[in-house]
Every structure is written in C-alpha cells, then in structure tokens.
User: What shape does this take?
Amino acid sequence: MSNKAKGAIKEHSDLHQQMISWRHYLHKHPELSFKEDITSDYIASILESHDIEMHRGLAGTGIVATVHGKQSGNAIALRADMDALPLHEKNTFSHKSTHQGKMHACGHDGHSTMLLGAATYLKENNDFTGTVHFIFQPAEEDGAGGKVMVEEGLFELFPCKAVYGMHNWPGLEKGKFAVHDKAVMAAVDTIHITVTGKGGHAAMPEQIIDPILTGAQIISALQSIVSRNLSPMESAVISITMLEAGHTHNVIPDTVKMTGTLRYFDPALGNKIKQRMQEIITHSTQAMGCTASLDFDDGYPATINTPEHAQLCASAASAVVGTQAVLRDLSPSMGAEDFSYILNASQGAYIWIGNGETPNEPSGSNCMLHNTQYDFNDEILPLGASYWVELVKTVLG
Ligand SMILES: [Zn+2]
Ligand SMILES: [Zn+2]
Assistant: This one.
C-alpha cells in the first residue's frame, strides 16, 4: 500500500496517528441510530478545535461542517455515517465497545474518522476552488437518517453540485477501491403476507381450510418469479425469512403470517416482481380455498451512481493507489444503503474502500460487516482520507 498522490496523507503520519485515536474513541462509544449524542459532540469538538465552521441539528445529531477553498466556486458534499448496531461485541482488543449491547460492526466509526481527517487536512491545505460540505449523518442502519437530513433541508441549506459517499468493504484488499458506474447497492422492501383459512382439528382435515399448506405452496411459487419471470441478466432476490403459525401439534391454525425481504436495483423491475407476487398469492389461495393479503413496507431505494461522477471518483482513487488498484467491474451488492436518498436528491457516486482480505484471520478487518468480531482497519484511514482530499481537487479543481 502506498499513498501515491502528491500531498496524500501518509501512513504513520501525525494525522494518521490522530485518526487512529479518534477512531478508537468512536469504536469504544458506539451509539444506535438517531442516538449519536456522544459521537456528534465528539466530532463537533474536533471540528471546533480546528476552527471549522459547522451546522448542527439536521436529523437530530447530524453535523454539516464546511471548509472553503482559496478561490470561490462550486460546492460539493462528502458524507459519512455515524451510527452503530445493536450487537454485543466479541472482540477483546483495548478499543472494544464499552457500551453494552452496542457495537460499531459496520465501520461507521472509520467512515466518520476518514471524513474528519479530510476536513482537518483541507482546512489547513485549502488550495482548491469552491466549497466542501462534510456531512456527518445519523441513523444509516435504522431509520434512514439520510432521508431525514434531506427532508429537513440539507440541500436548501447547503446547495451542492454533487455529493459523494464511501463504505469500507471487507473482502476487498486494503489499498484497493471499487467504483461502480451505475448500481452499487440494492433497493429493499419488506414483504408481509397473511394467509387466512379455517382452523380446526388436525386429524379432521376435511373440515378445515389449511393456511399452512397454502403458505408452503406460496413460498415455493414465489421462488419461480426470479427464475421464470425475469431475464437471467436481471437481478433480484425474494426471501421469506419469518413464519408465524400455530401453537400446538394437533390444531391447524386459522392464519399464517409470513415476512420477508425483496431486493432489486431497477424500480420498474421491483414493480413487476410485486405484481407477480400478488398474482401468485391470489391464485394460490383461491385454488386452496384461502384468502390472503400482501403488503410491502418500502425501504431504502437502490443506490445508483451517475457514471460521470463515478469516473471522477475512480480518477481520485487512482491518484491515491494507482489505476490498477481501482476495480471497475465488481458486482453490486444486494445490501442497501440510505445514501440513496441523498443521491436521489442530488447527483454523485458512492464507492467502496477495501477493508482487507486476510482469509486466515478469524476476526478483525476480514470479518464481514455486521459480524460481532468485525473491526474497521486502521491502516486504511490515510487512504480513505487521502481519497476525499483528491476527490475535492479532482471535482472542484
Ligand atoms: Zn451496516
Ligand atoms: Zn454501513
């Protein structure tokens, strides 16, 4: 790994050491979505100590810090998320969580730290044209803090030409970046199905209408949508993940409730899938004599980059790690991300930074996101912060 860009933040530099200590503080003090009070105060105190102007209070704990370049010009925004997850950390290192049942298992401690590193660096080295807004966003994991910030006037208060996001990616080697031209993360909707029959004695099936058998047929039939109704070139997932039915061995219940998740990239494809789900459920239940309802809770939309902004991100990442280390052909993820709301309100791109690929280690930076042994990789802090700095210079000049 090398920081090739001129003026890049060096490994083992003072700022790198500083970022490690910020990151460890944040890791020790994880807070859940919309409750990032200590986190927000800590970030604000660092910004303040560097004389960086900021706005607080969007979506509750949100912070937007601003650094102006030497010449006036366009404004762009860079975004990091701040929240942690309701997990009990199994790591034993000294910076492990001190908040029982809460853990930075998605690396948002690292994201906030890299953005802080870039903000403090650019404050001292503002040889760029225009303005940079640094968005520290609450509640990415639960509650769509990005959406709330937009609804509360993020872009009216801070008009921007474009906005950029970054997530660490375990499994991608440290020193590498991945940039997608279009789709990066999927849309997610929650599925709710209730099948109603007529319960009764399990030994007298002729007197009942069995919602469990009907539910089982629906689960199987739903799997035909992706395999039979979509082109093999299109991507979607339907997973039924939760069943609620019955209380004992000799009673057929009246109802079966099913919950699941639907993932896709293209909204038109999502609508087509929902329509096919309705048809399958209606006709399966009719055939079996049951009735059913189908509802969706719409979750985060898909995160879709604008190709011209993806190219700017790739150029900035190449300046830091070299073109060979910037992957342009990785498949997008079926995970979801509320940066999509911010992108949909503006334009820009969201990229991945490699968190490390060390297959023999059972824990740490190789652990998948949301694992109780995950940890953000401190060695990539200068790479991520340097990328932000390069991106500002690439986009704004
Ligand atoms: Zn996460
Ligand atoms: Zn995350």
Notes: The longest strand covers residues 71-81. The chain has ten helices and 16 strands. The chain has two domains: 14-185+302-396, 187-298. The CA atoms of residues 68 and 131 lie 4 Å apart.
